[in-house]
Amino acid sequence: MGEPHDRLTRLCDAMTDALVASPDYADTVKCAIFLDDGNRGGLVLFGWEDDATAVAHLFAHLRAIFNANGQEMLVVPLNQG
To answer: What backbone phi and psi angles, to 5 degrees, belong to 51?
Structure first.
């Protein structure tokens, strides 16, 4: 939704350019790219209509990773209302 605003998010954004350039790319493909340089992180959510849907999918994938490793991931919303 927003434009890359720092070095790491620009790098993430460049990775989406490579994705789109791939012959295997289809417009149904979505991705989340996260980079960390030890001091800061950068994240680009690509292909979703909105960030909330992308984050919901990201949590679902993270939960599956935790479950595959015999752990449980719980997400508890705070400050509702």
So the answer is: -65, -35
